[in-house]
Amino acid sequence: MNEIKKKTKNREIKSKDKIVDVRKHIKNIAIHSKDNSNADEKETQNTYAVDHVSKKGKKAINNVKEQSIKNAKKQYTKRKENKIIERQIQNVYTPTPPSSSQHKSDKTVSENNSLNKRKTVQKDLKIKKDSKSLPIKNKNIVIKKETANQKTYQHKIKSFVKLKNYKQIKDSSKNSNRIKKGTQSAMKTLKGSLIFIKRTALSVSNLVGAGISLILLLVLLLFIGVFAALSDNSSVSSTNAPLSVEVLAYTDTIEKYAKQYEMEDYIPIIQAVMMQESGGKGTDPMQSSECPYNTKYPNKPNAIQEPEYSIDVGIHYLSDCFKSAQVKDSFDNEHIFLALQGYNYGNGYIDWAVKNFGGYSKANAKVFSDQKKAELGTDVYGDPNYVEHVMRYVSLGFGNYREQPNFDNMDAWGTNNPYSRANLYGQCTWFAWGRFYEIYGYSPGFIGDGWKCVDQLLQAHPDKFIKSNEPAVGAVFSCIGRNHVGIVIGWDGENITIQEGNLDGLTNTFAEAKKDWHTATYSLDQFRTKCKGVVFAVPK
Known about the structure:
Blueprint: H1 2-27, H2 34-51, H3 58-63, H4 65-89, H5 100-112, H6 117-130, H7 150-164, H8 166-210, H9 212-229, H10 245-249, H11 251-260, H12 267-277, H13 307-324, H14 333-345, H15 348-357, H16 362-376, H17 386-391, H18 410-415, H19 418-421, H20 428-440, H21 453-460, E1 465-468, E2 476-479, E3 484-491, E4 495-501, H22 510-513, E5 517-523, H23 524-531, E6 534-539
Antiparallel strand pairs: 1-6, 2-3, 2-6, 3-4, 4-5
Helix pairs in contact: 1-5, 1-6, 2-4, 2-7, 4-6, 4-7, 8-9, 11-13, 13-14, 14-15
């Protein structure tokens, strides 16, 4: 009987384990009622999945909000199940005191079925899901509230949602960076302007408070600043024009006083000044009556009645302007331009231009003229374009028809010279090309034999030269019978002065070629006989 009772008891235990205990666990498995539990779940999910997400991910999360909430719900349910299982295993449950028969049965189940406890809990959860429709009358089991782990769970939900939407957040960040980089490039171009505007605004604000005198100072500074920006515009466009016969007639006189006032290297510029001032005509060809060195005649326009005295006074004053402008040599364009404008305005302009603008420019020359007109109450003061007007009578390289070649000018004798590149140093074509470039400042355009040079020059520059049987200063000649070419540097109507190279008839080194040339004068008939026929390309 004992064995039968034991067996019966075991059956009851098993039956109780499967049915009674399970149902009792189911009846009290929730902390709150069904309605409260569901409400809490929804509140927790919505609050932490949407309201407390990171600000940086809000925009991306809103775009996928519905999907994120669904995923969060599933994850929440799964995590909750796992938590309950773990707590069941770790004896987290704190059941209410059962009746004596129930206690005995539970103790027996705990002793004999410890290995099946996890399965029982899983069944509890499964039944719990389905038990929403079952009537629960008795609540004998109570689960410990999870308030202690609520914050941890909320943090994990937040992390989960952020992780789930990491890609969208990252893409959003990338788009933001692209926009940022795009705007940065635009901002860099505006940065300098904004700083300038800001500083200007502050300065104006301060100046208004300081008074009208400071505002006038600001206007003056701005005025100077505008033209300072233009002060580097010192280039002069030069269109070469020939000297008149009247100017050339004063060559000997010009050379005399140029030597006296140490201006020998600038004879072509002196001639160009005379050409601009008078064309070599009148009793005051240098228009120097108003110069301070005129002590013989009144200091008013055209007062001088002796051309030679005019040349003396004019070159003397031009020499002072060159010294004041600190001209170094005939290739020092910057300071020569400053000196020339000083000759026209008076050398007071030189100090003014250097002090306010660092040197000459066409813009500040006009400013000076305008200021003087306002001071004197006149409509005209000098010629703001004086430098350009003078330089049209001088080659770009300041070549002197009568001076010796400057072999240090490598543009003429080396770099640009096609005969130099072919190592034809000393040839008459090499010499004529170099001298032409020194005088006119551009290529003559010939690259062939000497007897072809005139035709090639006319083909290259038909607007500047014409073909002639009569010479002119600055003309290129080709000896038809001798295959020779050279430059005309003087012509008085009877005698012609030329410069030519290749006296030894050989191709030389550069050092030898620099000595293989000369200046010679012939009557025109002698020269024609020497050349066995000659043709000229004369400046228009």
